[in-house]
Amino acid sequence: xxAVTQSPRNKVAVTGGKVxxxxxxxxxxxxxxxxxxxxxxxxxxxxxxxxxxxxxxxDIPDGYKASRPSQENFSLILELATPSQTSVYFCxxxxxxxxxxxxxxxxxxxxx
Amino acid sequence: xxxxxxxPPHLSVREGDSAVIICTYTDPNSYYFFWYKQEPGAxxxxxxxxxxxxxxxxxxxxxxxxxxxxKQLSLNLTAAHPxxxxxxxxxxxxxxxxxxxxxxxxxxxxxx
Lengths: 112, 112
Hints:
Chain A has strands at 4-7, 10-13, 19-25, 31-38, 42-49, 56-57, 65-67, 73-78, 87-94, 101-103, 107-111. Chain A is mostly beta strands. In chain A, strand 5 (42-49) and strand 6 (56-57) form a beta hairpin.
């Protein structure tokens, strides 16, 4: 069974602070993704990666950085967190674009 | 690139009634499609993967119809039950990029 593990599952951060969301996959997938989910917007792609060392901007990259140090790990970094970044964040992995994308259970981030 | 529109955003039906969720896409070259189900507090789980060669796809308690002429994909729950209450997303791989485009989701509420 494909597995994508996110940590932490819940996070409260202060405005202006740095936040790092971590994702680990054991699927040996090349592609990894970070989405945020907000009411009325569905899933929006923040950053994605084709493989270790690569990061690509998604549809809403502003205010976020990503890091893919290895095949298994993909991090999302908020250097200066803002309340507008309060959301549920999902990490996912997949192979080619025509195969299933596997999701983690999500991280609920609250920026106060 | 590919664009996906999903409707309705919210749907309430009585137990035993049918429910229909529709997605339209823009790229006529799209050849794989996905439906995902998200239960409360959970990540997205694959419901069905559909190939462009198959217009009628039967699942357990639901049918997915693909209309290539109109570039439309529909999820049809034949006799909804409370366990079907969830958010449903359609997804279409972008044939020009290594990413999957999601619809905005449909909140389905099945009333007992």
